[in-house]
Amino acid sequence: MRCTEPVRIFFYNKPFPDVKLPDGYTIISLEVENDYKKINDCLWKGFDHGDNPDDDIDCRIQMQSGPNFRKDLTTVIKAPNGDYACFAGMWFDEKNKYAYLEPLATVPEHRRKGLATIALTAGMKKTKALGATYCFGGVHEFYTAIGFETICHRELWRREWQK
Q1: Burial level of 81, CB count in 10 A (0-12/13-18/19+)?
Q2: Can you say whether the dihedral through the CA atoms of 142, 147, 148, 151 is positive or negative?
Q3: Which phi and psi (to 5°) does residue 30 adopt?
Q4: I need a labelling partner for 84 at 20 to 30 A (CA). Which of 33, 90, 104, 139 fits?
Q5: How far, in Å, CA of 6 to CA of 160, rounded?
Q6: Average pLDDT of the residues in 80-105
Q7: Whole-angstrom Cα distance, residue 9 to residue 24?
Q8: Backbone phi, then psi, for 131, in 5-degree steps?
Q9: Percent of the chain having pLDDT more than 90?
């Protein structure tokens, strides 16, 4: 079985989106606060897995041990009540001078406020200052709406075994 998906890039030689943080929200990096449970809750709800997140935070801890992971590049937007409303993991490949986003999620009740754009842009600005020239984004149309360009399509294959 075969399907395709777009490869999208935001080139840093053009202006970044300019969106104002809504009143009551705050933007921080994981260097300032790194609450694994709040991260897990935000990503669980942000990827529409349901209301009640599982209690397994080991994957969140493991994610932060990956190559090129940096707490200072990962952005969290906190809701007025202190919960994490949006999470944008940003990675920087120093050798090849590019950034890549993984993951980006906004809790449903905080969507349509520009939080994902704000969090993503904060990470991209930080990686540009480090020497990155572009950032890889996701496949959703959100990315093209804020200036990412589709540079190609990749083919994905899945082998199906006959029984």
Answers
A1: exposed
A2: positive
A3: -70, -15
A4: 139
A5: 23
A6: 98
A7: 31
A8: 115, 0
A9: 82
Domains and CATH numbers, the chain: 2-157 (3.40.630.30)
Tokens of 46: 């942000």
Instruction: Tell the residue number behind the tokens 């050798």, with chain if given.
Output: 95
* Band (7; pLDDT cuts 50, 70, 90): very high
Order of strands, sheet of 75-78, starting from the edge strand that comes earlier in the sequence: 26-29, 75-78, 84-93, 98-106, 134-136, 2-11, 149-157
**DSSP symbol at 22:** P
Rounded to 5°, angle at Cα 88 from 12 and 103: 100
Q: Encoding tokens for residue 69?
A: 């992971």
The amino acid occupying position 70 is R
Alpha-carbon distance of 118 to 67, in angstroms, equals 25
At residue 2 the predicted structure's pLDDT band, cuts being 50, 70 and 90, is confident
Q: What digits encode the pLDDT tens for the residues 107-142? A: 999 999 999 999 999 999 999 999 999 999 999 999
Report the share of the chain in percent with pLDDT over 70: 100
CA distance 86 to 110: 8
